[in-house]
Design brief:
Layout: E1 4-5, E2 9-10, E3 16-20, E4 32-36, H1 40-48, E5 57-63, E6 69-77, H2 87-96, E7 101-107, H3 117-132, E8 137-143, E9 148-150
Parallel strand pairs: 7-8
Antiparallel strand pairs: 1-2, 3-4, 5-6, 5-7, 8-9
Amino acid sequence: MAQVFRGLGWATGRPAVSFSTGGRGLRQPCRTIAVPLADPRFLTFVRSHFENAREERLHVTYLDSAGHYLADETLATGLTHCAATRARTLFAKAMAADAKGFILAHNHPSGICRPSEDDIRSTDRVRHLAAALDIPLIDHLIVTTAHIYSMQSGRLL
């Protein structure tokens, strides 16, 4: 079962990533501090990409070999029940950023903070492709207004 954090919903306590703590958040280069994925600051950063979204969005955060932030972007915006992108796009951008790992996040506008069968199948496919390219998928987060579910913590990765 995924870990539950009071007021934050489900999230994982491992592994660590780093992100900027100053200015406009992750996009502004400045001092980095290693924090676990369950850190409220990182979860707030992730959730900020889905505020007021009525459609599903797929967001990715690229990491270096030490788990530090390299870049992030929204890869796809879809309908109320799905957002899709080609794996080629994801991995081309990961390689361009020289990423050594990445975290996927997508929202469920329905408010249901559990992965669907399609979420599980798609994540498994991405995980296998990522392993073959030696760019591991660190976690896949499902975001609602009330909770964040970690597929890593839920043992689905």
